[in-house]
Task: inverse folding
């Protein structure tokens, strides 16, 4: 299989994340530039809601429920827009010249080209999988959705509960991958990697452009630079592919810039006391919120952190204003918005026991990584940092964009805490929403860094124009010429940074996580050989006994064979409890063989726990200890120290 084979699955994914959202934007009568750039987050919002509704209705998940329910949403929005057509605010109807979003789209196209090249280099092969234990859940969840037909975020966690009861898990990413897989069902990894390309190379740059068009609607150079620079970041999407693997966060962060754009609309609507703007701002906000929460809740917390400085700035301006119109209502709403941001940070966080990651660096090292954009000991991106510095200088001279500098500094403070402060109540309080994980927060820095660096590009080009004018260069055509040159410089800078040493080194580092060799964390070379032979021995209606901490549970996703436990962190499955606790007693305990026959658990997959990550969970699978030595199982196919065994003690 070659990368050409990814094209059609990727096109299906692109259709899924762009068409419904685009027509939703049209139904809301948004300007065309926002119909395009907000399409992904509106599509994701529609998708996750449709998955929940379909799950409750018993409608098997696929394109049919997604498109039908999206069409219902679109028709309702179109009807309300028609009824309110004479009572809409003129604010969002004011469109900048087409050259601004056009320049931005050029940047997006270049970013997509660079990111696709980086992802191909990182993932190595269209069917390669990330060698991380988190990937057991993500891969198996796609197979689970295919078999159960239920992609609802309210029930996806059922895959890991002891009795199969519903449990919440943000399923936005899995909803999207399962749509691709429903059309190309031959390979879960292929669907996953096609979706990764869609999210990383297309959803992310388009979302960044949505934010750029909201920050500076009339600046072509800024729009082009922002779109292009989205492809020049080591922090995103690469870090989330190397660590975890953090697929849900990948989708949540990819649509986060667009969500910030909608939040900015909302704040401006309140500050301007523009009651007519509630449509389309409020429905766009509701759909986008659903999308970002069910992609990953900490993306919502991240949005609250980044937007809080703007909310406070607008609140101060409202209270200090001298307008004759009443300011009480907007002041109250902005104060409530600020409290909501703090409340989200306080409450929207995982259980404390999941925030186990320890600090890795000294405070000086953490500050240096943040300032140089060289996270996770990657090569510093000094050129990008120089543009950020220029952008900060420009932003501090304005009233309307200083808040982005504050957001960047606030995020830097949080990053230094997670990267360097000792484990304790203070650190948990501050960074618990991100699992006390420095990688998640490092990836988040990409958003304010891109905005500030794009400010820097735009500012430096304008300095050049100003300098040439004062050197006696004829003014006729100068601005147009310099604008054109500025666009070329902005786009060339993005491509140059995207191909520079930091990006190349980061891609090489990520590629190691997708490589199968004798020491791979999840699937070693020998284990891959055994998986490749399952189809020849194990009937599809029979079950394989596994210890998921050894990585063997991925047989469910990769080979379409049922396994006793589908994730390392699963609760003990009740129907397999006797087997997993007492299989090694099968010759003396008739209950064991009875359960083996009842569950058709006639096979045992012995893999290695390469990093001994499951040492603390051995008691959950003590029935698998020494089953080979006690003659409970017989080898069928082995490679090195691992293999497929038949449970023969119960024959």
Result:
């Amino acid at each position: 299989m070659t990368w050409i084979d990814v094209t059609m699955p990727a096109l299906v994914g692109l259709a899924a994340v762009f068409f419904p959202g685009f027509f939703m934007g049209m139904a809301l009568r948004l300007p065309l530039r926002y119909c395009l750039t907000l399409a992904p987050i509106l599509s994701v919002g529609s998708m996750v809601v449709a998955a929940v509704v379909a799950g409750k209705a018993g409608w098997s998940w696929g394109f049919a429920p997604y498109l039908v329910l999206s069409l219902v949403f679109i028709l309702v929005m179109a009807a309300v827009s028609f009824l309110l057509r004479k009572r809409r605010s003129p604010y969002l109807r004011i469109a900048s010249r087409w050259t601004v979003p056009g320049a931005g789209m050029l940047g997006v196209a270049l970013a997509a080209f660079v990111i696709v090249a980086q992802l191909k280099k990182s993932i190595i092969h269209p069917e390669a999988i990330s060698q991380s234990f988190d990937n057991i859940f993500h891969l198996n969840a796609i197979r689970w959705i295919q078999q159960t037909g239920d992609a609802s975020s309210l029930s996806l966690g059922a895959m890991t509960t002891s009795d199969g009861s519903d449990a919440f898990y943000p399923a936005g990413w899995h909803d999207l991958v399962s749509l691709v897989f429903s059309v190309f069902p031959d390979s879960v990894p292929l669907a996953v990697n096609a979706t990764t390309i869609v999210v990383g190379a297309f959803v992310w740059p388009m979302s960044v452009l949505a934010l750029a068009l909201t920050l500076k609607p009339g600046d072509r150079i800024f729009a082009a630079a922002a779109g292009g620079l989205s492809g020049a970041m080591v922090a995103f999407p690469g870090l989330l592919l190397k660590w975890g693997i953090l697929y849900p966060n990948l989708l949540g962060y990819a649509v986060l810039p667009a969500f910030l754009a909608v939040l900015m609309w909302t704040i401006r609507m309140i500050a301007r006391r523009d009651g007519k703007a509630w449509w389309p701002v409020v429905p766009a906000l509701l759909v986008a919120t659903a999308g970002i929460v069910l992609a990953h809740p900490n993306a919502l917390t991240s949005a609250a952190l980044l937007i809080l400085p703007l909310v406070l700035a607008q609140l101060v301006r409202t209270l200090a204003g001298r307008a004759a119109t009443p300011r009480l209502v907007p002041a109250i709403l902005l104060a409530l918005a600020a409290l909501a941001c703090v409340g989200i940070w306080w409450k929207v966080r995982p259980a404390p026991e999941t925030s186990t990651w320890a600090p890795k660096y000294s405070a000086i090292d953490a500050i240096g990584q943040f300032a140089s954009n060289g996270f996770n000991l990657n090569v510093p991106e000094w050129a990008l940092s120089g543009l950020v510095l220029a952008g900060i200088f420009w932003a501090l001279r304005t009233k309307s964009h200083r808040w982005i500098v504050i957001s960047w500094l606030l995020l830097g403070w949080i990053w230094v805490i997670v990267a360097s402060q000792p484990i304790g109540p203070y650190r948990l309080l501050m960074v618990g929403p991100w699992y006390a994980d420095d990688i998640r927060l490092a990836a988040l820095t990409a958003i304010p860094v891109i905005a500030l660096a794009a400010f820097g590009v735009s500012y430096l080009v304008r300095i050049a124009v100003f300098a040439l004018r004062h050197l006696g260069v004829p003014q006729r055509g100068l601005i147009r010429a310099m604008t054109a040159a500025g666009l070329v410089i902005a786009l060339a800078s993005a491509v140059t940074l995207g191909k520079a040493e930091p990006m190349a080194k980061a891609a090489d580092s990520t590629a190691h996580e997708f490589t199968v060799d004798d020491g791979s964390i999840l699937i070693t070379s020998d284990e891959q050989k055994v998986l490749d032979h399952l189809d020849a021995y194990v009937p599809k209606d029979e079950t394989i006994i596994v210890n998921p901490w050894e990585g063997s549970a991925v047989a469910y996703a990769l080979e379409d064979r049922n396994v006793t436990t589908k994730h390392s962190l699963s609760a003990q499955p009740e129907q397999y409890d006797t087997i997993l606790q007492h299989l090694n007693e099968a010759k003396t305990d008739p209950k064991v063989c009875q359960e083996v026959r009842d569950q058709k658990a006639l096979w045992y997959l012995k893999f290695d726990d390469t990093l001994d990550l499951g040492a603390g969970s051995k008691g959950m699978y003590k029935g698998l200890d020494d089953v080979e030595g006690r003659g409970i199982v017989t080898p069928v196919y082995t490679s090195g120290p691992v293999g497929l065994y038949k449970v023969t003690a119960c024959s």
